[in-house]
Amino acid sequence: MIHPPALPHGLQLTADGRLRHFLTVEGLSRELLTRIMDTAESFASVTEQSVKKVPLLRGKTVVNLFFETSTRTRTTFELAAKRLSADVLNINVATSATSKGESLLDTIRNLEAMHVDMFVVRHDESGAAHFIARQVAPHISVINAGDGWHAHPTQAMLDMFTIRRLKQRFEGLKVAIVGDIFHSRVARSDIHALRILGVRDIRVVAPRTLLPTDIATLGVTPYCDLDEGIRDTDVIIMLRLQKERMSGAFIPSLHEYFSRFGLTDSRLVHARPDVIIMHPGPINRGVEIDSAVADGSRSVILQQVSHGIAVRMAVMSMAMQPAITPEKTT
Ligand code: NCD
Fold first, then answer.
1. Is residue 1 part of a domain?
2. Within a domain: residue 2?
3. Backbone CA torsion sign across 311, 312, 317, 318
4. Among 64, 73, 288, residue to substitute to test ligand 1 (most atoms within 8 Å of Cβ)
5. Are residues 119 and 177 part of one domain?
6. Could you tell me the pTM of the whole model?
7. How high is the mean pLDDT of the chain?
C-alpha cells in the first residue's frame, strides 16, 4: 500500500490557499469547502439548461485514469469535463499498458508527454493520487476519484452539496452513516467534510466487525444498533458492503445483515419525519437498503448523481483556473 502523507493539504493548495490538486478534504478550511459548493451551485444551473456547456476548460485535456471499475464516478467526471469544454481521454487499466506490466509512473510520464492538463485518478491503493500529484509537472492538476479505503473527496463534496441544498444548513444536524464503515473511503471523507462544516452529531452504525477500532478518534459516535443509531437523524447515508475490499468473513450472512442493518420503511420511524436518505451507489437492494426506501420519497440518491456533475465541474474549474473562481457568496 502506498501511504498518503500526513499533511497532504500542503500539496493540494497553492501558496495563496487555492486549490491546485484535490486529493482529500482532510485539513481543508470551511471556507474552501463552502466555495466549492457555491461554485457547484452556479454550475448546477448550467447542467439544467438545454445547452449545457461553458468554455472554462476549452483547449485543456483531462485524462480519466481509472485503475478500478466505476460507472457513476467516471461518467460524471467525463460529463463534467465535457460541460467545461475540455477534451477528455478515458483510460481504463484493463485495456491499457499497465495490464502489460508498465509502471504507474511510466504511464503518467507518457501521458504527460502528450501535454495533458489534468489527471482524474481512481486506484485501489490508498495514496495513489498523492503519489501522482507529487510526480507531475507544475501545470498539471490531480483529482482523487477514490483511493483504496482512504478518501473520495468529490463524493464527499457532492454529499455535502446535497445536504446543503436539502437542509439549508449544517449546524445542528444529526447525521448517521450506516454500513461498511471499515472499508469505506466515502465514510472517511464524509466524516471529515461534515466536521469541517460544523456538524457535531455524527454517528457511524455498523456491526462491530465493520467499525474501525479507532473510529471515535474521528469525532463520531459508534453504534451497533440501527434503530438507536438513526434515532432523530436528519440525514442517513447508507453504504454498500465493499466485498471486493474484504478479506475474510465480516458478517455471518447477507440475510442476517439485512435483518439487523438493512434500512426499511419500518426502521425509518426512528428517524425524523423529514430525514433524507443518501447512498453513493452502487446500491445493493435487499442487502443494505430495501427497494421501497431506495425508491421512496425520502431518497435523494438520484439527486446525488446529478449533483456529482456540478460539484466535479466546480472542483475541476477551481483546480485548473484558480484565478477565475467566483468569490464566496454565502
Ligand atoms: C463509492 C466508491 O467507489 O467508493 N462509490 C462511488 O463512488 N459511486 C462507494 C462504493 O463503491 O460502495
1. no
2. no
3. positive
4. 73
5. no
6. 0.93
7. 91
Would you say the CB of residue 155 lies under 6 angstroms from ligand 1? yes
Q: What size, in residues, is the chain?
A: 330
Q: Are residues 104 and 27 in the same domain?
A: yes
Domain of 217, in residue numbers: 153-305
pLDDT in tens, 211-255: 999 999 999 999 999 999 999 999 999 999 987 777 667 888 899
Residues 164 and 107 placed together within one structural domain of the fold: no
- Whole-angstrom CA distances from 148 to 79, 118, 191 are 24, 20, 16
pLDDT, block means (10 residues), the chain with 330 residues: 51 91 96 97 85 91 93 95 96 71 87 96 94 94 96 98 98 98 97 98 97 94 98 98 77 91 98 98 96 98 97 97 49
Which CATH number fits the domain that encloses residue 236? 3.40.50.1370
37, 48: one domain: yes
Task: Determine, yes or no, domain membership for 214.
Answer: yes
142 & 186 share domain: no
Q: Which three cell numbers stand for residue 79?
A: 460529463
Is residue 245 in contact with ligand 1, taking CB distance under 6 Å?
no
Q: Is the CB of 148 under 6 A from ligand 1?
A: no
Closest ligand 1 atom to Cα of 184: 4
Same domain? For 15 and 159 the reply is no
Q: Are residues 84 and 68 in the same domain?
A: yes
Q: Are residues 162 and 285 in the same domain?
A: yes
Q: How many domains does the chain have?
A: 2
183 lines ligand 1 (CB under 6 A): no
